[in-house]
Automatic annotation (TrEMBL):
Species, as recorded: Streptomyces sp. SID7499
Positions of the Carrier domain: 5-49
SUPFAM superfamilies (UniProt xref): ACP-like
Highest classification ranks of the organism: Bacteria, Bacillati, Actinomycetota, Actinomycetes, Kitasatosporales
Chain coiled-coil ranges: none
Protein name per UniProt: Acyl carrier protein
Amino acid sequence: MTQRNFTFDDLRTILREAAGLEDEVLGDDALDAAFEDLGLESLALLETG
């Protein structure tokens, strides 16, 4: 069975679809940002799971 790594692009896709984030918010600098810094709350975190 082939194992695939979870990438930042995968996370961006999930956050766009589940939390409705715009592409501008999900730049490369978002990789080290807290959810709160991206304008998200704990509910958005639950929706991405």
